[in-house]
Amino acid sequence: MDKMILNDGNQIPVVGFGVFMIPNNGPTYDAVLQALKAGYRHIDTAAAYFNEEDVGRAVKDSGIPREDIFITSKLWLQDYGYEQAKIGIARSLRKLDLGYIDLYLIHQPYGDVTGAWKAMEEAKEAGQIKSIGVSNMTPKIWNQYVPQFKTKPAVNQVECNPFCQQRELRQILDKDDVKLECYYPLGHGNADLLGHPLVTSLAQKYNKDAGQILLRFETQDGLIVLPKSTNPQRIQGNIQIFDFQLTEQEMEAMRALDTGKTTHDPEAEGVEDMLRNAFVIED
Ligand code: A2P
After folding, report:
1. Does residue 49 carry a catalytic annotation?
2. Residue 90 Cα, ligand 1 centroid: separation in angstroms?
3. How far is the CA of 44 from the centre of ligand 1 (A)?
4. Which of 215, 229, 235, 241 to mutate to test the pocket of ligand 1 (most atoms within 8 A of CB)?
5. Separation of first and last alpha carbons in the chain
6. DSSP string covering 212-263, please?
């Protein structure tokens, strides 16, 4: 599995297995074990996915050394502010029970993000977390919060695929060597993307499926991808993207699919309240 070097010197596998919406107490455990068997070495969870326990159990039972697996989790909105974030970080560490977390993110960019970030910086200094980052930060939100941070985020995890390539954001992130992680790298079920004639013709040429073409394009373009699948064949297939390369002409053609629009707009009115009311994390 190819890796990238983050701006703090740590390495991250460029394809991660996402477990959003997979239930705890069995299904996440099974899915993560299956992903690890298939060759994934990067698992992306969150406090608000309610399945950190299963992720931790699967990693421990996999027989793979802890240091060979990269674990991401995320702090939920209810745990923002400096003091409360310490409680949230401790809760994630306890539920995962893996000694440390490789990457911990500010999941949503609202409220006392700066206080929460300070607690994350301290947890990084203490070795509880190896790298820290943010998520769902548009250029405007990035410029609102990040100039106040002492430590630059290692990543910003946002919606990104050929239909929304985040070009403006990527210019801002590139200045500080911040890596962009793509959620919805396959368009989250958008048939127009997976069925786009350019994508299907490349799939035919390289004897890959449409999803593999999207993931190849994204990783070849310098992005980290978190494809989601519950289908065993596609879980396996989505990491088989390192045995071929798109030509520069094909990369340019894929770049031309950008519409500049995301489906989730973190700046939209009501989004913050909707998210705040969506989940309550319990001990
Ligand atoms: P499935 O779980 O049946 O594989 P995203 O990661 O952008 O949110 O997209 C997830 C969606 O893409 C799921 O509906 C998933 O369905 C589907 N999917 C995952 N891998 C592939 C693939 N290689 N080709 C086509 N669709 C895929």
Report:
1. yes
2. 33
3. 16
4. 229
5. 35
6. HHHHHHHHHTT-EE------HHHHHHTT--SS----HHHHHHHHTT--S--S
Rounded CA separation 280/283 (Å):
10
Q: Atom 8, ligand 1: which residue's CA is nearest?
A: 188
Helix, strand and coil in the chain, % to nearest 5: 45, 15, 40
Q: What is the residue with the minimal CA distance to atom 26 of ligand 1?
A: 211
**Residues 6+ away with beta carbon under 8 Å from 238:** 15, 211, 212, 215, 227, 229
How far is CA 210 from each of CA 3, 35, 195, 197, 220, rounded to the nearest angstrom?
23, 20, 7, 10, 15
State in Å: Cα 160 to ligand 1 middle.
Answer: 14
Q: Which two tokens stand for residue 76?
A: 């939920």
- Which atom, in ligand 1's list, is nearest to the CA of 185? 7
154: nearest Cα among 121, 171, 177: 177
* Per-residue model confidence (pLDDT) at position 148: 94
Q: Which residues contact 66 (CB under 8 A, 6 or more apart)?
A: 59, 98, 99
- Among residues of the chain, what percentage have pLDDT more than 70? 100
Q: From the candidates 29, 40, 49, 80, give the one annotated as an active-site residue.
A: 49
d(CA 34, CA 24) in angstroms, rounded, equals: 15
CA neighbor of 113 nearest in space, from 152, 89, 80 = 80
Task: For residue 257, give the amino acid letter.
Answer: L
Contact 104, 73 (CB under 8 A): yes
Any ligand 1 atom below 6 A from CB of 152: no
**Band of the pLDDT at 276, cuts 50, 70, 90?**
very high
Q: Is 162 in the pocket of ligand 1 (CB under 6 A)?
A: no
